[in-house]
Amino acid sequence: MLLRDIEKELDMECKLILNKDDRVLSFSRAEGKTFQAFLEIKGNDKFLSIYVPRDNQTSHGSTTRFLQSVTENEKYLISTIPIEDSLYDLLLAMDMVQSTTSPDITVEEGHLTVRVCLHHSALPELSKVFKNNTSLKHLVRELNVAPASGFISHLERKNKEFPLKVLVFSIPYSNMKGKDARRLLDKGAIAELASFVNTSIQKKVLFYTPKNVKIDGIKPISTKSSIYEMDFDDLGVDIFSVLSNLFNSMNIKRFKVFFKKEGVNVRIIVILQKYDAMRFISEAFSYYQRSDIPANLLLSNDYDGSVWEVL
User: Residues 120, 170: one domain?
Assistant: First the structure.
C-alpha cells in the first residue's frame, strides 16, 4: 500500500479563520502574502511563531519595521505573537477529537487560519467541542467544515509557499517495540504521527489499514473505516516517541511523519521544512548511533509530486 492510497481516508477538513490582530497579519494583508505559523509553548507562555521568508520584497521598505518580536535566520524572519488561553484551549479540544491530524496554521492575506483534517465519523464529536466552547464567537471569525482535498494536494500547495524536503530513513523492524503497533503494521498498515508537537500534550498515532483487514481486539475509529487511533502510552517507548522527542528538543517543524513496514525494516518518512532538514538528519543519525540502531538514509530530496509513486 502506498501513501497515495490513504490520501483521502481523512475525508473532512475543518477550517477556522480566527479573530486576531497583529502587525505581522497587517503586513501579510498589505502584501497579499501567505506565511506559515507554528504553535509553541515555553513554560506558561503560549505563542505562534510566524515564518516570513527573507526574500519577501515589500513595496513599503524594510520588512522588519512592520514586525514585532522578530528573530532571524538565513532564510526567515520569525515573528512571534502571544495567544490567549481560550484559543489554546479550543485548539487543544479540537486536537483531542478522534482522528484529527496536527493543525496546519497559516497567515493568509492577513487572516490567521487553522486547518485540521478528520474522518467524517468524528464530526459529532467536533460539533460538541464547538457547542461547549463559550468563547467561540469571540475567537472565530469564520468556521468551515467541508470535504477534504487530501494531504497530497495540500502539500503541493504548501511547497509553493514554504519549500519542503522529503526524508526516508530505514531501521530494523525489530526496533518497533509496541505490540499493537506491530500487529497493525504486520497487516500492511501505514502509521502517521498526529497531534501537536509538544511534550505536554498526549500524542496519538493514526494507523491506516487495507480495506479488508480486521485486527482482533483492536477497534477502528468507526465500523465503516479502516483507521485506528492509539495513544503513545498504549504503544510503549519506541521509535514513535523517540522521533517526536527529536522534533521537540530541536524545535524542528514537521508537516507529516509516516511509518511503513518494508520486509525486515520499517521506513520512516518525514516531510518537513527544507531549512530544518540537515539539522534533523544529523540529530537522527546521532541518536541511532548512540542507541546502536543501524539506520540508513534512503532518500533526501526536495519535495516533488513524483515521490508518491514510490512511497
Answer: no
pTM of the model: 0.87
Task: Characterize 10-23 residue by residue with b for buried, 16 or more Cβ atoms within 10 angstroms of its Cβ, and e for exposed.
Answer: bbbbbebebebebe
Q: What is the pLDDT of residues 219-248, one digit of tens each?
A: 788 777 889 988 766 555 456 556 666 676
- The count of structural domains within the chain is 2
DSSP secondary structure of 73-100: -SSEEEEEEE--HHHHHHHHHHHTSTT-
Phi and psi, residue 151, nearest 5°: -70, -25
Residue 124 lies in domain: 12-160
Q: pLDDT of 57-113, one tens digit each?
A: 454 445 555 565 556 666 788 888 888 899 999 998 998 899 999 889 999 988 999
Residue 7 lies in a domain: no
Are 35 and 138 members of one domain? yes
Residue 17 pairs in a beta bridge with 113, 142
Residues 88 and 155 in one domain: yes
